[in-house]
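Hi Y.,

Following your request, here is the sequence exactly as I used it, all 247 residues.
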Amino acid sequence: MTYCVGMVLDRGLVFMSDTRTNAGLDNISTFKKLTTWENPGERVITVLSAGNLATTQAVISLLDERSKSAGDRQPSLLKSPSLFQAARMVAETLREVIDNHGKGGQQADSTFNATIMLGGQIAGNPPRLFLIYPEGNFIEAGEDTPFFQMGETKYGRPILVRAYDKGMSFEEAMKLLLVSFDSTLKANLSVGLPFDFHCYETDSLQVGRTGRIEVSDPYFETISKGWGEALKLALDQLNAFEFDAHE
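Below is the corresponding structure, written out as tokens. Let me know if you'd prefer a different format.
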């Protein structure tokens, strides 16, 4: 399992993903799930991947190879005329990989499923964010749905729904995401540190602030401890339940 979030702000786009692909007492693997393509001054495209590792790695590798070797007529993320067309390209590549895996004898509809998030900006157009399903269809973020989640979504969603504000700064968005990821990590061993992130600023047309939140990151430790204490304090301040009033 995994946990990935893409968020649309007035200031730009924010992406974060965990790096855990297997969970168990003696079987934990770490792989980067955030990939970025850049043509400075012209476009920046970021992809987050969740699901079967063989599928997601094959999709990213194909997209990367085709971007590096594409001719004028060959589809490429670095030549796509719009992010909508880029999303279509990723969707077709995802479906292609799943279908090819499925021909090996197993059911692609379950064993090789993967979901991909794509966001970024091409010069002359606004930033956009898409969520691409294994069936090859996709949806776009908008006013009613300003952020997307993939993987183990339920534990980290409540804080996003309650605290998201499109006018927040990148620093505020990072704090919000780390609380969301901490809540998910605490509830499910299949999600784990380190976390990768990318903050893209609208119209910069270059890769923005990127980095990795490591296991021993002091700020994340402060966030995790502070959020837990704040929740306990809030619970203690609520009125106690009264049995007499409910009998």
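Residues 194 and 214 are 5 Å apart (CA to CA).

Thanks again,
Q.
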